[in-house]
User: Which sequence fits this backbone?
């Protein structure tokens, strides 16, 4: 399995700026802090950035969360392979047609191995799967 964000999610994402004391219920630190969120959209690239400046008493740090969004065609071009047609394909089409978010594409084991071989800099974490 490979998590993929679809274009309909990109179009629904809004650029925002927020801040909160102990943002996300203290997710970023066990100590007191102020968390900021700045969301930026890059339309041409179909990419969003969630920038989280975290201000604690002893330090300031910034976390960057980049997300790229794909159509089924752009995903195939990105990885140089097609997707297996499985039962989830109908579910994905239903979600796209109804504006719902569907973020899982299923790629076969051999295609994942080929993708990794073609793009040596790519890092994947696949729980419970041995790709050898």
Assistant:
């Amino acid at each position: 399995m490979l998590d993929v964000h679809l274009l309909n999610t990109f179009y629904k994402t809004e650029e925002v700026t927020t801040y909160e004391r102990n943002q996300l219920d203290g997710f970023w630190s066990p100590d007191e802090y102020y968390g900021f969120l700045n969301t930026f959209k890059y339309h041409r690239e179909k990419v969003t950035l969630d920038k989280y400046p975290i201000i604690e008493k002893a330090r300031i740090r910034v976390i960057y969360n980049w997300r790229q969004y794909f159509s089924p065609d752009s995903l195939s071009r990105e990885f140089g392979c097609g997707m297996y047609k499985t039962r989830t394909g109908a579910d994905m089409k239903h979600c796209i047609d109804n504006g719902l978010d569907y973020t899982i594409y299923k790629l076969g084991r051999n295609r994942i191995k080929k993708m990794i071989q073609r793009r040596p800099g790519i890092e994947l974490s696949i729980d419970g799967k041995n790709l050898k």
